[in-house]
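Question (not urgent): is this output format expected?
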Amino acid sequence: MLTELLRLAAGCRCRLLLPFALCLAVSAAADDWPQWLGPQRDAVWRETGIVERFPASGLKFRWRTPIGAGYSGPAVAAGRVYVMDRQLPTGAANPGDPFTKALVPGIERVLCLEETTGKILWTHAYDAPYTISYAAGPRCTPLVDGDRVFTLGAEGNLFCLDAASGRPIWSRDFKRDFGAKTPEWGFAGHPLLVEDRLVCLVGGDGSVAVAFDKHTGKELWRALSAREPGYGPPTLIEYGGRRMVIVWHPEAVNALDPATGQVLWTVPFESRYGLTAPTPRLAGDMLFVTAFYNGSLALRLGSGEPQVLWRSPKVSEKDTTYLHSIIATPFIEGGHIYGVCSYGQLRCLKLETGERVWETLAATTPEKETRWGNAFLVKHGDRFLLANERGDLIIARLTPAGYDEISRTRLIEPTNRDPGRPVVWSHPAFANRSVYARNDREIVCASLAEE
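Got this back:
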């Protein structure tokens, strides 16, 4: 049955109707969202001509396309949309308890859709039996670089595919090639491209972080050892005229030389259950990370080892002082941190001290504090777009004065019930004056263009 499923999936692959170069030219006038958190990997959408408020009648959907399950957010580049999903063979099912780890057969797929219509242009499918908790599907957003797209599956299958056809150019298997063990919740660190180096969280002895030649897949360097790699994406920062790749694994925050993998500095910071998920954020000379149980760590960078400015005093998921995030990446501006805490509290903190300025549940789960309650934050102009776990899209202003909601609309239905309630835990993409979102049944595109 699995062989048949793979054969049918492979049969979806087809050649594009228009030359790839033509699509590049057509899309040049609009912004793309080619990777995790957007073009600059900073959760800022810079397109103009976007609605001030949502229409009273609701969003105008440009298209809807059925897909399978997964947490992988879409990437949008050069007139195409790329997303990953998972397909189960007939008769197979994930465990009833999402925390149960069992061997479940299935395939992962990389899908390429036409941006204007949502039509599937090609599909790349491969065998990927799951052994993880919360087994809906892949976690990582595809990364598009010119004529190539890089994808990482939940069981450690890394692919470089031809963006026009889906043809595999090279691939690596983290478990086979590095002896890595699949993390509890799968491989989830979104790959980072630094010039010709694709930096990934891998795991294994001495290979928590590995850089691959983007052209060939050849290993260029490996660095760090830890009991597990965690889930946070490698993050490129620049401070003091030097670029560094921040790798935050469950034992420490580390800075690496992107060219060689040399460890520049390490600051110990234990994270319970390996929950290093939100992207590290830099603001001036301040580097900030936040974890579900262990909370916040604020570092002040300097010429040598960073200084620990402040950190959460308690290891707790509910008795929290600063910010204990599990999913959403916080946003920092104007000396303040905005982020979603462990039970859905959208909080504003002072960057210098961690002091809480305000909190609200209005953007996430208004009725009550809810474990893992979530909303993704993307900045646009002087406002934020918040995509919450209930499938709503919100326009709001976040300032030290408080949460000011401007408009709210329905974007997509929450279909994943693993946390005991229906949720959407996939980060949307914003490009071409539109929003792209997925659940476990479909991917949709809705216009956000000003009329």
